[in-house]
Write a structure and sequence with these properties.
heterodimer; A: alpha+beta; 17 helices; B: alpha+beta; 7-stranded antiparallel beta sheet; 5-stranded antiparallel beta sheet; 12 helices; about 30% helix; globular
C-alpha cells in the first residue's frame, strides 16, 4: 500500500443482504454480498469482510450502516427504560397529539416505548419563557431514580416541559442521576434536539434511551471483533443525517442512526449525480416491499427533523428526508369488487414473495409481470434451485387477473405495469410538490434492485426528461458509506417574532452551534479535507403553524436580511406576499460538515472488462413487451459496455445487481463514471 | 358533460383515470393546506377539495386528505348552485369565475365552512365543477370563532354569504371581499386563505387540462360515468355483508345549549339485498339552540360513518347510491332558516355517525367498534393579556377514547370521528396564551369495561396566569357516556369544572356553556369521555386486567367493580 493511500470499506446491512464495497484509492474496488444475519448483524458484516479479497488489517476506514436501532424500535425489542418527568405530564408520550392511524376506520393500536408504570413524576416547572416556577425537587428525583433502578431499568430518560427554553432542571437532574445510575445510559430531552413540542421531544428521547444499550452492545462487539481481526482504527457508523460518526460517540445519540441505510443511499446519489453534472435529482429506490423517494436540490439532499417511523412514533432528529411509498416489486395485483385492476397496497414482501421467487408465494406481483413480459431474465431467476416455471406464473396471471378482465395474459401483465407505474409516478409527484417543486425540473436517479426496471416509465409519466442509473445501483447504500462526510446537526428553538430579536443574540446561537460542531468533529478520527458550516432558519408568519426553511449565508447575518430572505422564499414557494404580517423565527439550524477527499467513481466498473464496440457487449436477444406488443430486444451486459456507449431502445441492460429497461424511442448513453443516462421521450 | 361518441373504455384506462382523478383532488388538498394561512386549514386540514358533475353537482372525486366530515358535502352545495344559476338567481358562470358561499341551508354545514366553486370549461362548455371548503377561523357573529353554545338564530352565528362571484374572470371582486372582511374578526389574515383556496382550484384546473389532453374529454366523461357505476357496485357488494333485516341505533346530544333537555337521534335501517334504507323516525324535533343540523350535513354524516366502516370504497356519488336516506323533515336533523346550526358539523354529525355504528355493530362486529368519545372537545378561552397588551382567543380541542373493537382495546386520545387533526403541543399553547397547564394526563378509569375495553380520554387542568377571560364549551357526552356494545359497558362521561376563587362551577348543561368569566388563578378542568367497551367484561383475560392494574389505568376498586373480581 502506498503512503497516503486509503482503503475504505462501506458496509450496509439491508433487510435481506449485507453489502460490502471496498474502495482502494490506489488500486481497485471489490464487492461482497452476504445474507443479513438478523439476530446479530455483526456475523454478516464479519462474513462479508472475510469473504472479500482485502485484508482487514489493511483497511484504513470502515463505515457501517446498520438497521439495529430501527429494527429494535419497530419490533419493540427495547431495553427496559424509565422516565422522570414533570408532575402532571407523565402520559404525554402515551397520549400523543390526538390522532388515529388512518383517516377512515375508527381503529388503532399504540404501545408506548416506556410503559406507564415506569414513568414517574417529580415536582419542577419551567414556563415558556424559561423561567422557573417550581424549583426542582432533588429528593424526589433521587427517590424516583431509586424506584426505577429497583424496577430493573437499564436506561433513563429525563424529560421536562420547556427544557428547550431552559435546560437547567434537566441538566441538574441528570447530574443527580449520574451519581446513582450504574451506567451511562441517561438521555435528557433537550440534548438530542433542543426543539419545542413535548410529545415529539419526549418520544425521541425515549427511543434514544431504549435503543442505547442495544446499539452500544452491538457496536462495541463489532469493534472488538474487527480489532481482533486486525483492524487498527475506529469503526465509523452512518447516521440518518447522511453523515458518519465514530463508534465511540454513536450510542449517546443512538436515535440518530434510525434510517441510516436510506440516508446513505441518498448521499451516494447526490455524490454521483453531482459528478455527472446533474445536481437536481429525485431518487427512486425501489425494493421488494416499498420504494424510497428523496429530493436533492443543488446536490444537497433535503433534511427534515419530522420523521415518523411508524404510527405515533416520531423521531425528531435531523435526518435526510426520505419518504417511503408503498409500492415495491412484491406489490400484489388484484381485481377489486368494482372489477378494476389494483396493484397494492398489499405486498407479498420477501416471504412468501412474488411467485417467481419460488418461496411459496402464489399471488401475482409486479415482479411476476416483469418476468412474464421479458423485462427480467428468466434464466437468471429460474437458475437457482427454483421449482417455479414460466407456465405456472402465466397460469396465475390468467386466473387471478386476465380472465376477470377478458384479456390475454400478456395484456394483463402489461396492464399490471401500467397501473403500477401510474401509481408510483403519482406518489413521486406528491413527494415533489409537497416540498414545492415541480418534478419536471429534476432528473430521476434510479437505484435498488427494481428502480431501473421502472424508472423510464415513471419518468415519462411525470414529464421528467432524464433518468440516471448509477454504475452499481444495487450497492448504492454501501457506496453512501464510502463517500459520506462527517456531519453534525444542531437545532435551537427560538419561537419569537423576528422583529423582537437582536441580530447579535442570534449570531451567538449560531456561533455556539459551530463551536459544538467543531468540538465533535475534532473528537473524530477521520481524515478531512476541510470543514463546512451551513446555517438556516425555520420561519413562518405569526399565526401559521407550518415552517419554511430559509437559508442563512453566514453567522454575520442580520435580522433585516433574514426578514428579506424569508419573504422571498415565501413568495417563491406560495406566490403570496404578506408584508402586513409579522414573521416568526422558530428554529436556528446549523450543520457542520467535515468534508472528506473526493473519490474517483470511475473505478466502480472495472475498465478492463469494457469492450471497445457496443456490439461486443451484446449478451442475448429476447422478446420483450412494450406498449402492447412484443419487440425483439437486444440484451446488453452492463460491465462490457464501452464508456461512450449509446444505446437506442428498446433494449435491456443486465448486471449482477439490477436490470435496466430502455423503452422504445428512448436513448441511453454511458458516461465516464459508468452511469447510464437515459433520455426519455 | 357529454358521453356521446366515446369508444368502449378498456379497464386499464379506467383504472388509470380513477387514480388520476384522485390525484388531481389530492394535489388540490395539498396545495390548499400548504399555502393556507390559518392553522385550522394548514395544520388541522379542516378543508376538502373535489370534482363535481356539471349537470347535477354530484361527486366525481374527492381528495383523500380532506377532513372526513366533508365526505360528500360539496355535492349538495354544488347542486344548489347549479339550480340557482339555471333559474337565474345567481349570475351565469364564465371562465375564471369563482363563487363563494357559506349558507348552511343551501347545502352547507356551519357558517365557518366557506366554499369556493369554479366552473371548469372545455370547448366553451362546463365540463365539471371544481369546489373546495375551508374552515375559516372566524366568520363574525356573537362569539369569536363561531361556536356559540346558545345562539337561537343563525344571524347570531355570523355572516351568511349566498352564492356570489368572488372572482370574476380571474379577478377578485374587491368590493365583495371588503364587505366580508368588514364582518369578520382578524380579517387582515384572511387574504392568505382566500388566495390559497382559489389557487388550489387553479391547480385542479391545470391538472384536469393535462388529463383531457391525454385522454380526450369524451374518454374522461365515459370513465367518470363508468366509475360511478363501479363504485355503486362496490358499495352494494359491501352492503351484502350485512344480513337482511332491520337495525336501529340511538344516540343522544346532551342538550341544544339553550333548553336543558337531551336530543334523541334515532336511526332505523332496513337492509334488503344490496340496499340500505335509512330513516330518522323517532328523532327529536328542531331545537332552539345551535345543535340543529342542516340536511346536507345529516346526509354526509351517514356517508362518513359508512366510510369508516368500509374505507376501501372510493368516494364518488356512486358509493352513496345504495344508501337511501329519507328526509328527516320536522326533526333537528333537517334545520331550516333561521335555526342556529353551529354545532352541526362538530358535534351532531358525530352523534349521527355513532347512531349508525350502534345500529350496525351487531351485523358487522368485525368492522364496527363500540362508540368512540365522538366530540371535538371544544374549549375556547377569550381574554386580554395585560403583559402583551393584546386580546386573544385560545382553543383547546381534545380527543377521547375510541370504542373497543373485535380484536383490540380502543385507542386512547383518538381524534374526533369527523376529524384527522392533531392538537397543538402544550409548549406552544403556553407560549402564545397566558395559561399554565397543571395537568395533561390520561383519564384513569374512563375506558368502558369489556372483553376489549374502551380507550381512555384525557384529563387536563388549565390555569389562567394573567388578566381576565371568558370560557366557553361546546362538547358532548356529558349526560350519557359513549355506548358499550355486545355486553361492553359505557365509557365515562365528559366532565367540565371551572374553579373560581377555589369554588367549583359545573355548567348546567354539563358539556355546553358560554361566557363564564374567570380571572388569574382560576382553573378549568376537563375530562373527556372514554370509549365504550366491546363484548362481555367477563371474557376479558386475566392478563389484560392485570396489565390495566399494573399501569394504573384503573384502581383496584374499579377493576373489582368492572370485572366482578374479589
Amino acid at each position: 500500500m502506498q503512503p497516503g493511500a486509503q482503503i475504505i470499506a462501506g458496509i450496509d446491512v439491508g433487510g435481506t443482504f449485507t453489502d460490502l464495497l471496498v474502495f482502494d484509492t490506489d488500486g481497485g474496488i471489490s464487492f461482497g454480498k452476504t445474507p443479513t444475519t438478523v439476530d446479530n448483524q455483526s456475523f454478516g458484516v464479519m462474513q462479508a469482510l472475510k469473504d472479500s479479497a482485502v485484508k482487514i488489517a489493511d483497511i484504513t476506514t470502515i463505515v457501517h450502516g446498520t438497521t439495529t436501532t430501527t429494527n429494535a424500535v419497530l419490533e419493540r425489542k427495547l431495553a427496559r427504560t424509565g422516565m422522570i418527568t414533570t408532575r402532571g405530564f407523565r402520559d404525554i408520550i402515551e397520549l400523543g397529539r390526538r390522532t388515529r392511524p388512518q383517516p377512515y376506520g375508527m381503529f388503532g393500536e399504540f404501545t408506548p416505548v416506556i410503559p406507564r408504570a415506569l414513568r414517574l413524576e417529580i415536582s419542577e416547572r419551567i414556563d415558556a419563557d424559561g423561567e422557573v416556577l417550581t424549583p426542582l425537587a432533588e429528593g424526589e428525583v433521587r427517590d424516583a431514580i431509586k424506584t426505577l433502578l429497583q424496577q430493573g431499568c437499564e436506561s433513563l430518560v429525563i424529560h421536562f416541559l420547556h427544557a428547550y427554553a431552559n435546560p437547567q432542571h434537566e441538566q441538574h437532574a441528570a447530574e443527580i442521576a449520574a451519581g446513582l445510575w450504574p451506567n451511562k445510559y441517561i438521555t435528557t430531552g433537550h440534548s438530542l434536539l433542543s426543539e419545542y413540542r413535548e410529545y415529539e421531544r419526549g418520544v425521541t428521547a425515549s427511543v434514544n434511551a431504549a435503543v442505547q444499550p442495544i446499539l452500544d452492545n452491538y457496536i462495541d462487539r463489532l469493534q472488538r471483533e474487527l480489532t481482533s481481526a486486525g483492524y487498527q482504527h475506529d469503526l465509523l457508523v452512518m447516521n440518518g443525517n447522511g453523515g458518519m460518526v465514530s463508534a465511540s460517540l454513536v450510542s449517546r445519540e443512538s436515535a440518530k442512526t434510525v434510517m441510516s441505510g436510506p440516508a446513505s443511499g441518498v448521499m451516494a446519489a447526490a455524490y454521483t449525480a453531482k459528478r455527472a453534472g446533474m445536481p437536481d435529482i429525485i431518487t427512486y429506490d425501489m425494493g421488494g416491499t416499498s420504494s424510497d423517494v428523496a429530493l436533492i436540490l443543488n446536490a444537497l439532499p433535503s433534511v427534515s427533523h419530522e420523521l415518523e417511523i411508524e404510527y405515533a412514533m416520531p423521531i425528531h432528529v435531523p435526518m435526510v428526508d426520505v419518504r417511503t411509498i408503498g409500492s415495491g416489486g412484491g406489490s400484489i395485483a388484484s381485481i377489486d369488487d368494482a372489477g378494476l385492476l389494483q396493484v397494492g397496497p398489499h405486498s407479498a414482501g420477501a416471504t412468501p414473495g412474488p411467485i417467481c421467487y419460488g418461496r411459496g408465494g402464489d399471488k401475482v406481483t409486479i415482479s411476476d409481470a416483469n418476468l412474464v413480459l421479458g423485462r427480467l431474465n428468466p434464466e437468471t431467476l429460474f437458475s437457482v434451485d427454483n421449482k417455479i416455471s414460466m407456465d405456472q406464473i402465466r397460469t396465475a396471471i390468467d386466473q387471478q387477473i386476465a380472465q376477470k378482465l377478458s384479456m390475454s395474459v400478456d395484456d394483463a401483465a402489461g396492464a399490471i405495469l401500467t397501473i403500477a407505474n401510474n401509481k408510483m409516478a403519482g406518489a413521486v409527484r406528491m413527494v415533489s410538490i409537497s416540498r414545492g417543486h415541480d418534478p419536471r425540473d429534476f432528473a430521476l436517479f434510479a437505484f435498488g434492485g427494481a428502480g431501473p426496471l421502472h424508472a423510464s416509465a415513471i419518468a415519462r409519466e411525470l414529464g421528467i426528461p432524464k433518468v440516471l442509473v448509477p454504475a452499481r445501483p444495487g450497492i448504492t447504500n454501501a457506496l453512501g458509506c464510502v463517500v459520506a462526510d462527517v456531519r453534525h446537526d444542531f437545532v435551537n428553538t427560538i419561537n419569537r417574532p423576528l422583529d423582537s430579536l437582536a441580530s447579535d443574540q442570534l449570531q451567538q446561537t449560531l456561533n455556539a452551534q459551530n463551536e459544538r460542531g467543531m468540538e465533535l468533529i475534532n473528537a473524530e478520527s477521520v481524515a478531512l479535507e476541510n470543514i463546512e458550516f451551513r446555517h438556516s432558519a425555520d420561519m413562518q408568519f405569526i399565526g401559521q403553524t407550518h415552517l419554511l426553511n430559509v437559508p442563512i449565508s453566514s453567522t454575520d447575518f442580520t435580522c433585516e436580511e433574514l426578514q428579506r430572505n424569508f419573504e422571498s422564499v415565501y413568495l417563491n414557494r406560495f406566490h403570496v406576499e404578506l408584508k402586513e404580517i409579522r414573521a416568526n423565527l422558530v428554529n436556528l439550524n446549523t450543520t457542520v460538515i467535515g468534508v472528506r477527499a473526493e473519490l474517483d467513481l470511475q473505478k466502480l466498473i472495472d475498465p478492463a472488462g469494457r469492450k471497445d464496440k457496443i456490439t461486443d457487449a451484446i449478451k442475448d436477444q429476447r422478446q420483450v413487451w412494450f406498449d402492447g406488443q412484443w419487440h425483439n430486444t437486444v440484451i446488453y451486459q452492463r460491465d462490457s459496455l464501452p464508456l461512450d456507449a449509446i444505446i437506442t431502445g428498446p433494449a435491456i441492460v443486465e448486471q449482477m445487481d439490477t436490470t435496466i429497461v430502455i423503452e422504445p424511442d428512448s436513448t441511453a448513453r454511458s458516461d465516464s463514471d459508468g452511469n447510464l443516462i437515459i433520455e426519455v421521450n | 358533460m357529454s358521453t356521446d361518441n366515446h369508444k368502449k373504455l378498456d379497464p386499464i384506462t379506467l383504472a388509470v383515470i380513477q387514480s388520476s382523478l384522485q390525484q388531481v383532488c389530492d394535489e388540490m388538498d395539498l396545495s390548499f393546506s400548504r399555502a393556507a394561512f390559518s392553522p385550522i386549514i394548514a395544520e388541522a386540514n379542516d378543508r376538502s377539495d373535489g370534482i363535481y358533475s356539471a349537470i347535477n353537482g354530484e361527486l366525481i372525486a374527492q381528495g383523500a386528505l380532506g377532513l372526513p366530515v366533508f365526505v360528500g358535502t360539496m355535492q349538495f352545495s354544488t347542486r344548489v348552485l347549479i339550480e340557482m344559476i339555471a333559474c337565474g338567481d345567481v349570475a351565469a358562470p364564465e371562465p375564471g369565475d369563482i363563487y363563494i358561499v357559506n349558507d348552511p341551508y343551501l347545502g352547507g354545514t356551519h357558517l365557518m365552512d366557506v366554499r369556493f366553486a369554479m366552473p371548469y370549461f372545455h370547448n366553451e362548455e362546463i365540463f365539471c365543477w371544481l369546489s373546495n371548503t375551508g374552515h375559516w377561523p372566524d366568520i363574525g357573529g356573537a362569539v369569536p370563532g363561531g361556536f356559540s353554545a346558545n345562539a337561537t338564530a343563525v344571524e347570531q352565528e355570523g355572516l351568511r354569504i349566498p352564492p356570489v362571484k368572488l372572482f370574476k374572470r380571474g379577478q377578485m371582486d374587491k368590493e365583495i371581499y371588503s364587505i366580508i372582511c368588514s364582518n369578520i374578526r382578524v380579517a387582515e389574515q384572511r387574504i392568505g386563505d382566500v388566495k390559497a383556496q382559489s389557487a388550489a382550484l387553479l391547480v385542479g384546473q391545470a391538472r384536469l387540462d393535462e388529463l383531457i389532453e391525454k385522454y380526450t374529454a369524451n374518454t374522461l366523461s365515459a370513465a367518470i360515468a363508468e366509475l360511478k357505476i363501479r363504485a355503486a357496485q362496490q358499495m352494494r357488494q359491501r352492503i351484502t355483508e350485512i344480513p337482511d333485516g332491520n337495525y336501529t341505533g340511538t344516540a343522544y346530544v346532551d342538550s341544544d345549549g339553550v333548553v336543558d333537555e337531551p336530543l334523541t337521534i334515532q336511526i332505523n335501517m332496513e337492509k334488503s339485498a344490496t340496499e340500505l334504507h335509512i330513516d330518522f323516525e323517532g328523532t327529536s324535533p328542531p331545537c332552539m339552540g345551535p345543535m340543529n343540523s342542516v340536511l346536507a350535513t345529516t346526509q354526509s354524516s351517514v356517508y362518513l360513518a359508512m366510510r369508516h366502516i368500509f374505507p376501501d370504497v372510493p368516494i364518488n356519488a356512486g358509493a352513496f347510491d345504495p344508501l337511501h336516506i329519507k328526509d328527516p323533515h320536522d326533526t333537528f336533523l333537517h334545520a331550516k332558516y333561521p335555526r342556529p346550526v353551529s354545532g352541526c358539523a362538530a358535534e351532531v354529525s358525530q352523534r349521527i355517525a355513532e347512531a349508525v355504528f350502534a345500529a350496525l355493530v351487531p351485523a358487522l362486529p368485525e368492522k364496527v367498534t363500540a362508540a368512540p368519545a365522538g366530540s371535538s372537545g371544544n374549549f375556547a378561552l377569550g381574554g386580554f393579556d395585560p403583559k402583551r397588551n393584546s386580546s386573544y382567543v385560545m382553543y383547546q380541542l381534545s380527543g377521547g377514547g375510541y370504542g373497543g373493537n373485535h380484536d383490540h382495546d380502543g385507542l386512547t386520545n383518538g381524534c374526533s370521528t369527523i376529524g384527522i387533526s392533531k392538537t397543538p403541543p402544550i409548549e406552544v399553547m403556553e407560549q402564545y396564551f397566558p395559561v399554565l397547564y397543571r395537568e395533561y394526563a390520561l383519564r384513569e378509569g374512563s375506558g368502558g369495561a369489556g372483553e376489549h375495553r374502551g380507550g381512555f380520554g384525557i384529563q387536563y387542568s388549565i390555569e389562567l396566569r394573567r388578566g381576565e377571560a371568558t370560557a366557553s364549551f361546546v362538547m358532548d357526552h356529558g349526560r350519557v357516556g359513549p355506548q358499550g356494545v355486545l355486553g361492553g359497558k359505557d365509557g365515562m362521561t365528559n366532565s367540565v369544572t371551572v374553579w373560581r376563587n377555589g369554588e367549583p362551577y359545573t355548567p348546567p348543561h354539563l358539556s355546553k356553556d358560554q361566557g363564564i368569566a374567570i380571572k388569574a388563578g382560576d382553573r378549568v378542568e376537563v375530562g373527556t369521555p372514554g370509549g365504550g367497551g366491546f363484548g362481555d367484561p367477563a371474557n376479558r383475560t386475566a392478563e389484560n386486567i392485570q396489565h390495566d392494574l399494573d399501569n394504573g389505568y384503573y384502581t383496584q376498586q374499579q377493576i373489582d367493580e368492572m370485572y366482578g373480581l374479589t
